[in-house]
Amino acid sequence: MAVPQFLRRFITPGRPERAALYTVALGAAALIDPAKLTPGGRAAYRLTLAGITAAVVAGDTQRAVGPQGRSAAATAATVAGGAVLGLAEAGEALDAKLQRSLVRRGVSKPRLVFAAVTAGLTLATELPALLAARRWVSYRSGNSQHMDVVDHVPFGEFPEGARTLITGMLDFSADPSAEALRAQLASAHERLGVGGSGSFDAIDIIVFDAEALPRAVPHRQQFPVVAEFADPNTGSPRVVRLGIDGGSLAQLTIEADDRAADSEWLWPERWPALAEVTFSVEGSEPLDTRAAKRARAATRH
Fold this sequence. Notes:
- It is built from nine helices and ten strands.
- The protein is an alpha+beta fold.
- The chain has two domains: 5-133, no CATH class; 137-299, no CATH class.
- Strands 3, 4, 5, 6, 7, 8, 9 and 10 form an eight-stranded antiparallel beta sheet that branches. The chain has a two-stranded antiparallel ribbon with strand order 1-2.
- The longest helix is centred in the first third of the chain and has 27 residues, at 39-65.
- The chain is elongated and about 80 Å long.
- The N and C termini lie far apart (52 Å).
């Protein structure tokens, strides 16, 4: 089942919505004294904590392993949620012991102390991702808007499946700018600053040493060739487009015809082979790949 993009903001590391939600939710949960709950209330309390923990772990794992690691994220989330349920009895016993200790020391409202400490610790764990997400600063270069890096912003190796797909798009095109983009592709990396690999249906591209490489013309465009394929695992149709900014590779985006029936991540868990991909020029019928290559070769002479 798909998770709408606005909901993804609440599980994606580095998003202020996630930090606010988890800080408030866990702080509020700490106000509850589990010893005073009915058996049904205690079960709901434990399941809520397990669900919050599973969501946090799923978001963090997905960011670490990328869109091809959905099964790993699901496994990690299940294990984390199960661990919370398995340790619930011991955790509640420790909670009661700490509460009695605070009362003996004259603290009249120990649950408020628990809530404040829990909220503070939660915010502290979310802070590094929030700061990393804001280490990106924009600057002007000519007529295009680019992104520069300050401090340590995470980069990842560019997914080989995405690299192969872009290569196919460039090979299909008769556009002279394809040669410049092909030269850039060898130095392409993925920016992982917000949301992890492939989040929000896009792979952000950073070309290292871009200033030393040829640029595409026009500098800002959507590359005319699109790639269409069926997800090798689900059979769902996908459309991939390539964005150019400042004459450089900027972003690979993916769309699906029926998002409501799809999974949270549109990027395929297993990338298709080029033989499984249909390339076409935007706004036209699919063209003969060999003819496009011959036309492109003719422009070099």
